[in-house]
Amino acid sequence: MNNGQILMADDDADDRFLVQAAFEDNDLINRIVFFEDGEQLLEYYIAEENQDAPNLIFLDLNMPKRDGREVLRVIRKNTKWDDVPIIIFSTSNAPDDVVASYQLGANCYIVKPSSYEELKDLVLNVHKFWLQPKAISC
Amino acid sequence: MKLSTYTLLRRSLSEQQLSLITRFLFGTSLVLIIALSYSYNEINQELVNYSEKVNQTQHVISGLNKLSSAIYETTYHADSYIFLKDTVYINKTLAAIKVVPEITKKIDSLIKDDGAQRKRLNFLKEHAGKFCDYSERLSRPATLINPGAVNALYKRKNEEIASMIKLIGEMNKLEDQLMYTRLQSRDNYMQQVYRYNWIIMLVAVVFLSSAFVLLDRELRRNKFYRVDLENKIENLNRSNSELEQFAYVASHDLQEPLRKIRSFSDRLVAKYKSELSGEVFQMLEKIDNSAQRMQNLISDLLSFSRIVKTGTEAKIINLNTCLSEAKSNLSEVIMENKASIHSESLPSVEGYNSQIVQLFQNLLSNSIKYRHENVRPVIRITHRLVDGEIIPGVKPSHQDIQFHQIKFADNGIGFKKEFADKIFIIFKRLHARNEFAGTGIGLAICKRVVSNHNGYIFAESTEGEGSNFYIYLPTESMLT
Question: What is the pLDDT of residues B90-122, one digit of tens each?
Fold first, then answer.
């Protein structure tokens, strides 16, 4: 099923491939737009034709040109897409990075899992929590 | 700059030799100056003494001259009366006679130490007495009527005068001699005083200048030590920040390829499970295991390096609370192994709470991990106060302070004596991986934590009979 659009900025092609594969292996059909660095994502963000908010953003922290922190800062400072959930997806588990990301307005901080099985389960759970349309109560 | 620093810091003499030489120089200079001052004083006293004696002799000589004058005056007046018969001279004669005993008395007081002169003076006094008597009798108008008596008295008076002149001449001669030797001695002492002045000044100058040279050398050396120390601190800060950078690189860049190796081999298995032969499957599993192990090593290394950076400020912490925190973190392991932990009441120290919890936790889990297979693990924790000097390899500055000794004694498998130091080395393991899991970081972290607290940790054991771990934490906080 198609459950909305995801943006993912990560300079690591393997990671982009693995996330795509994890979605596919979970039989989840999402439109995932990939960016190789923060600058590409910000160009996409600014562009006139992309007014529709995505459903979720995966953001790596350490990228060339403009890194995840800058992207986070820009998106959270503006009104455009201000309610889009942003998941920081990084190899770093340094407390400083975690704290800084939440302070800048990240919704979730996930350390990249070290096995594919873990990643697959993670993608499934993220999908359930952030992307499945919820029944509106009350 | 580097070279000159080195040559300046290098000592041609050892610290001890230098200190000995300084003491010797100071001591001898002091003794010399005191001795010289003492002799100077002695000589000075002699000089004063001889100066006084010279003065005295001069007084004696002038006294003798005055005596001669008085005799001549008396004679002159008496003779004038006899020949001119003018009564004016009677009183003049009597006045001149009066002066004579006064002068002899004065001379007497000046030469009372000189026996030979005194003898002469006594004779002189005798003759003077007679002379005065004859002169007085000659001055009487009654005597003048009788020319025979005048003649006799006049003759006898002249005899007395001759004797007195002779005695005075002798005394004068003796005093002249005395004067000569005394003057010579005085000049001699004066020269010596002059010489001593120079010697004392010379010694003082030598002493002062050597003190100055030594002090100047020490000050310069001190300055270079300070510069050297500042450089070292700068280097240390630099290498610390490099270490932090390394930790970051290790966490990110080194883990990255490993993660890929694991992820892809994992996916390979997941996706092509049905197509893979058993052998390929096994090999992939080995790849995954190795990669995982390396990940563990890197992350352990990272957690070890993070302990260097304390971050938080030291606080007064109760070790009992730390111990119960550590126990609650390990509650599952403790339950599983039915371990019993007995602890005495522990003190409070100034330190980093999380690190001490980590220390206790690592020691407890270490003791439980290396248990005898069929024996319930028992860990006893005891505390006592000890003096710094009993700790092996203690730093000199720690010798005089008290330490808390906290002992963890277990009934586990122990280890051979020769490994007592090695077990604290990072990644050092005493057992094969299939016997006991783990990277070998636990005790290395313990050692790091204890050194962060300016403390010491030691282990002792007899193989098969359990181990004792001793932690020494200073009672006075030395954390800044």
Answer: 888 888 888 888 888 888 888 887 788 888 888
pLDDT given at position B234: 92
Residue B160 included in any domain: yes
User: What proportion of chain B, given as a percentage, has pLDDT over 70?
Assistant: 95
CB contact under 8 A, B259 and A91: yes
Q: Looking at this predicted complex, what is its ipTM?
A: 0.74
Q: What is the mean predicted confidence (pLDDT) over B415-434?
A: 79
The nearest alpha carbon in chain B to A22 belongs to B267
The 3-class SS string of chain B reads: CHHHHHHHHCCCCCHHHHHHHHHHHHHHHHHHHHHHHHHHHHHHHHHHHHHHHHHHHHHHHHHHHHHHHHHHHHHHHHHHHHHHCCCHHHHHHHHHHHHHHHHHHHHHHHCCCCHHHHHHHHHHHHHHHHHHHHHHHHCCHHHHHCHHHHHHHHHHHHHHHHHHHHHHHHHHHHHHHHHHHHHHHHHHHHHHHHHHHHHHHHHHHHHHHHHHHHHHHHHHHHHHHHHHHHHHHHHHHHHHHHHHHHHHHHHHHHHHHHHHHHHHHHHHHHHHHHHCCHHHHHHHHHHHHHHHHHHHHHHHHHHHHHHHCCCCCCEEEEHHHHHHHHHHHCHHHHHHHCCEEEECCCCEEEECHHHHHHHHHHHHHHHHHCCCCCCCCEEEEEEEEEEHHHCCCCCHHHCCCEEEEEEEEECCCCCCHHHCCHHHCCCCCCCCCCCCCCCCCHHHHHHHHHHHCCCEEEEEECCCCCEEEEEEEECCCCCC
Q: Using a CB–CB cutoff of 8 Å, tell me whether B248 touches chain A.
A: yes
B273 contact residues in A (CB cutoff 8 A): none
**Where among B212, B230, B257 does a domain terminate?**
B212
Note down the domain range covering B410. Answer: 313-479
B295 occurs within a structural domain: no
* CATH code of residue B394: 3.30.565.10
- Mean pLDDT value of segment B375-396: 87
Which residue in chain B has the smallest CA separation from A120? B267
B233-287 pLDDT tens trace: 999 888 888 877 777 777 777 888 888 888 888 888 888 888 888 888 888 888 8
pLDDT score for B1: 40
- CB pair distance less than 8 Å for B256 and A93: no
- CATH code at A5-132: 3.40.50.2300
Residues of chain A contacting residue B271, judged by C-beta atoms under 8 Å apart = 25
Q: What is the CATH number of the domain that holds B44?
A: 1.20.120.240
